[in-house]
Amino acid sequence: MRQVKMIRHLVIFLFLIQIQELVNGQPNGPLMDSVIRTLEGPATTLYQFDTTNPNSVSFALEGEVEGIFEILNQGLLRSTKPLDRETKALYKLKVKTLNAAGHLVEGPFSVDIIVEDINDNLPAFNQTEYTGEIREQSRPGKQIVTVYATDADDPETPNGQLVYKITHQIPDPYKVMLFQINNKTGTISTTINGSLLLKKETHDQYELLVIASDLSFSDNVKVIIKVTENIWKNPKPVTIVENSTEPHPMKITQVQWNDDSAIYELQQRERYPKFPFSIDEDGNINVTEPLDREERAQYIFYAFALNENRVRLSRPVDIEVNVEDINDNPPVCPGLVTHFEVQENEGLGSSIGTLTATDIDEESSRNSLLRYRLLSQYPKIPEDGMFRLDLYTGVFQLIKNGLNINEVDLYVLRVNVSDEGVNPSALSTLCEVHIKVIDINDQIPIFEKSDYGNLTLSEDTPMQARVLQIQAYDGDQPFTGSSEIIYAIVEGDPLKTFAIDTDKTTNKGWLKIVHPLDYESKAEYNLVIHAINPEPLVSGVSYNDSSITRLNIIVTNIDERPYFEETVYQTQIKEDVPIGTLLTKIVAIDPEGDDVIYELNGDRRSWLWINETSGEIYSNAILDRETEPHYYVEVTAKERRNLSMKSSVSFQLFLDDVNDNAPKLANGYAGAVFCHPLSKKESVFVEAVDADTSPNSRRFRFTLGVGENITRDWTLSFINGSHTKLNMNHHDFPPGIIRVPIIVNDNGKPPLESTVYASVTICTCSSGNQCSSPPLDDFGRPSVGMALGILFGVLAVIGIIVAAVLISINKKKKKENTPKKVAKVDATSPTETITLAS
């Protein structure tokens, strides 16, 4: 009994809810062609049709009723069973009214019931487990396997749009993802880390857990990926003996792709004067000619594997070829004759000089290790063997007394220089050495002046400029190391701003500038200069103050241009910053400390403003990335008291995109033209574009706009993020131009929306499927005939006006020629006289 009461109360409650819906918010309207949208789900009241015809006493429903819809006599349309969009998304009904006798009064009117989607279906993978294979160290992005899930909800809405994601990677030895998944397509591929770290010997199998989710629900699947050996790997370095006499081309190594389908290609890593290598269809790498190590000791180049379209299958492998040296180059003397000097009182064991021969064979090998052997001495006065030559260093020493410049002033020595090469054999050469006996160095250099006083130099004196000549004299034997003078600045030049060149013939010294002068850094130099000989002084003789001079250099200031702290100033901001936003601060410094003012040059769009005192640059207008994403201007800094002293620097403004452009139709869209009558339901592809950059413009959402019979006549099909397909729901369209409104939303945050109009022209066609006459709605667009008609009409109006003027003038003349009594009036001008006389 209690259950019966509960059921009775529930029925009453539901009835009251239904009545409340009718009273408070149930859609209603006059009886006409209608499109009614309703969410899928339980039975519900859909619409209240109103009629003002007193003869209409009841409503009737026809069409795809299918036992799901009914209309009450009061015009209340409702569903009697649950609606499921996945079963059927569109019902075409007709509604009419009847009189008391059951005869038609109004209608029938078309009523389309569009069942809109709710998220009531779960994603589902089409397999319980996926497997795939990847070779170790494959290129990044190499596709392995694609997982696929379906969702019965509307794919045009987020309810049915799935997103894929990898949630787990087992094992995870490096704590980085080795695999990635395209969140739209479900394609799994290698990451950059995976291309480097996937190795069969480390882990030969990975398990991925992948989730596919819509707005509310998700499904999971396991993906097993097997790692296989990659035989596409760097071959071992190759060593080739130079100047080989073997037949060429000669195979030196081989590379091999993982199957037989690859095409092989070699590329240089750096540009060689010649590239003596080739590769054949089997991956055999050949050297095409003998190599010369002295020309190049090592070659490193790349081998690529390509598919039939010459697209690279993977990253290249490195080929390393080392050229092995043979002893094919003899030692070379430093010159035709090597000259040394020795004082006649030189002590035993003193080093006279070093003979340095060279060998271009491989460095630090026996082929370039040199041995020196003294063959002869001429003259043998006072005896043979006056000198010793070190076997490996080439150093000459005096080992016997008896040098006398009056008896022998020059010794000629012959030296054999040989390497220790064994392949094929050691090579040698003969060098000639002259040892000149010179007077003892018992005289010191003496400056002509002990003080050169003051020298004034402007700070802009160019480098390498000779600014002063100095002179010292030496009384030792001329043109020897005992009399040669070397000038050295020993004090007063910590930054090494100056240097002194010596004329070995005259021993004159030239002071020159080797680093820029800078008054602000150092305004005065007190130089102390020494004069010395390359040969040592004899015992008991020393350099003194006579070998020293002084010079005071005064640097004068010049007005220098300001300089900037940076070579280029750059700022990156969003394009929607408010006017007056501080962008950057330019800092210029005047070397003399004068005030600096700033100005902008090249601000073509007047986007910027600079504070002339502080150098701060502000936005001066609304910035627009789509107009100019990279905006370059020049900033000039000038001395306030001398505007001609100025410098410039570049300021570069990089604008980041914000979502400030609504989508629009692509520029090339011209609409579609179909011949009347239509034989089938046609479709039109519509492309939208957006001046913004990704992600604001990458993916658009298309929906039909509002208009009479729009949803009855048209539907949209998803293609991709930039295209949609406009489909006809029937083919009963009359001739004319139809402009279908489509609402396009972009992917920005927040998104922007615009309504575009896809033009569809339906016209009567000739046999060649060309419009034979313009459609009815095209009267607003001028044709050639219309243009000619307008032209002729204008000419006709002009002709009428001209004719009227001529007729008026003719009547006036006749009136003037008619005799009548007129007053005497004098003519006021010759022209008027002529007119009256005529």
Automatic annotation (TrEMBL):
<keyword id="KW-1003">Cell membrane</keyword>
<dbReference type="GO" id="GO:0000902">
    <property type="term" value="P:cell morphogenesis"/>
</dbReference>
<keyword id="KW-0732">Signal</keyword>
<feature type="signal peptide">
    <location>
        <begin position="1"/>
        <end position="25"/>
    </location>
</feature>
<keyword id="KW-1133">Transmembrane helix</keyword>
<feature type="transmembrane region" description="Helical">
    <location>
        <begin position="784"/>
        <end position="807"/>
    </location>
</feature>
<dbReference type="InterPro" id="IPR015919">
    <property type="entry name" value="Cadherin-like_sf"/>
</dbReference>
<keyword id="KW-0130">Cell adhesion</keyword>
<keyword id="KW-0677">Repeat</keyword>
<dbReference type="GO" id="GO:0016342">
    <property type="term" value="C:catenin complex"/>
</dbReference>
<dbReference type="InterPro" id="IPR039808">
    <property type="entry name" value="Cadherin"/>
</dbReference>
<dbReference type="GO" id="GO:0007156">
    <property type="term" value="P:homophilic cell adhesion via plasma membrane adhesion molecules"/>
</dbReference>
<feature type="domain" description="Cadherin">
    <location>
        <begin position="334"/>
        <end position="447"/>
    </location>
</feature>
<feature type="domain" description="Cadherin">
    <location>
        <begin position="686"/>
        <end position="776"/>
    </location>
</feature>
<dbReference type="InterPro" id="IPR002126">
    <property type="entry name" value="Cadherin-like_dom"/>
</dbReference>
<dbReference type="Pfam" id="PF00028">
    <property type="entry name" value="Cadherin"/>
</dbReference>
<dbReference type="GO" id="GO:0005912">
    <property type="term" value="C:adherens junction"/>
</dbReference>
<dbReference type="GO" id="GO:0016339">
    <property type="term" value="P:calcium-dependent cell-cell adhesion via plasma membrane cell adhesion molecules"/>
</dbReference>
<dbReference type="GO" id="GO:0016477">
    <property type="term" value="P:cell migration"/>
</dbReference>
<dbReference type="InterPro" id="IPR020894">
    <property type="entry name" value="Cadherin_CS"/>
</dbReference>
<protein>
    <submittedName>
        <fullName>Cadherin-17</fullName>
    </submittedName>
</protein>
<feature type="domain" description="Cadherin">
    <location>
        <begin position="126"/>
        <end position="333"/>
    </location>
</feature>
<keyword id="KW-0812">Transmembrane</keyword>
<dbReference type="GO" id="GO:0005509">
    <property type="term" value="F:calcium ion binding"/>
</dbReference>
<dbReference type="GO" id="GO:0034332">
    <property type="term" value="P:adherens junction organization"/>
</dbReference>
<dbReference type="GO" id="GO:0045296">
    <property type="term" value="F:cadherin binding"/>
</dbReference>
<keyword id="KW-0472">Membrane</keyword>
<feature type="domain" description="Cadherin">
    <location>
        <begin position="449"/>
        <end position="564"/>
    </location>
</feature>
<dbReference type="GO" id="GO:0044331">
    <property type="term" value="P:cell-cell adhesion mediated by cadherin"/>
</dbReference>
<keyword id="KW-0325">Glycoprotein</keyword>
<feature type="domain" description="Cadherin">
    <location>
        <begin position="50"/>
        <end position="125"/>
    </location>
</feature>
<dbReference type="GO" id="GO:0008013">
    <property type="term" value="F:beta-catenin binding"/>
</dbReference>
<feature type="compositionally biased region" description="Polar residues">
    <location>
        <begin position="828"/>
        <end position="838"/>
    </location>
</feature>
<feature type="region of interest" description="Disordered">
    <location>
        <begin position="818"/>
        <end position="838"/>
    </location>
</feature>
<keyword id="KW-0106">Calcium</keyword>
<dbReference type="GO" id="GO:0007043">
    <property type="term" value="P:cell-cell junction assembly"/>
</dbReference>
<feature type="domain" description="Cadherin">
    <location>
        <begin position="565"/>
        <end position="665"/>
    </location>
</feature>
